[in-house]
Amino acid sequence: METEKNKESTVGLNYPMLTRGNYTVWALKMKACMDAHGIWVAVSPKDPKAVVEEKKDKMALAVIYQGIPEDILLSIAEKETAKEAWEAVKVLCQGAERVKAARIQTLRSEFEAMIMKEGESLDDFCLKLNGLVTNIRTLGDEMAEAYVVKKVLRAMPHKFLQITSAIEQFGDLEKMSIEEVIGSLKAHEERLRGQPDASGGTNQLLLTEEEWRKKDKEESKLLD
Asked: Is 188 within a domain?
């Protein structure tokens, strides 16, 4: 009689709560807890042909309900057995994980293919790039700041060669923030607008190798 009371009390225990990204760990913990209290057989009986005790099945179903958020609970509310409910949660979570992984892959491909086009403003390019990075991180994929910084430098058109070279040579890309890099690029862009070309326009002047080296040293001071 005491054993039955102990089993019935398992419904009131604090079981792990399922979240968007912890299904595998959640399932392992739930299985261990339910197995320890003798109700895991309702989900995965040793003999597939054996009839599960109604009380154990209801207890297991109640435990599953306790460990899932409301949106998933509403999705599986029509399942009548613990086994059916467990399988439904598995399909929902693993299916969502596959969709998420595919979405991350698509966004990463777009990120890698991004190149700032001639005539495109730096603000517009950075806005699109930051949007992709935010979406990727929101989906749970880690994208290091240094990785984004290096991508921005690679994506710049030729007119930014001077400043990107200076940043790569004299800056610590592993510690630099994307805001610092964009700030340096914007400062360089503003200086370019004030440099008239031979025809009176505002394009960048062609420089000798010695002049490039001198300007690289000047640009590097921005990073000190």
From this structure: yes
Give residue 216's domain range.
Answer: 117-223
Q: Are 205 and 197 in contact (CB under 8 A)?
A: yes
Same domain, 134 and 214: yes
Q: Is the pLDDT of residue 43 over 60?
A: yes
d(CA 56, CA 8): 9
* 206 and 147 share one domain: yes
The answer to whether the predicted template modeling score (pTM) of the entire model surpasses 0.85 is no
User: What is the tens place of the pLDDT at every residue in 156-189?
Assistant: 998 888 888 888 888 888 888 889 899 888 888 8
Best CA proximity match to 146, nearest among 170, 128, 117, 172: 172
Residues 138, 61 within the same domain: no
Q: Do 40 and 137 fall within a single domain?
A: no
Residue type, 6: N
DSSP class per residue in 142-196: ---HHHHHHHHHHH--GGGHHHHHHHHHHS-TTT--HHHHHHHHHHHHHHHHT--
Burial of 31 (0-12, 13-18, 19+ CB in 10 A): middle
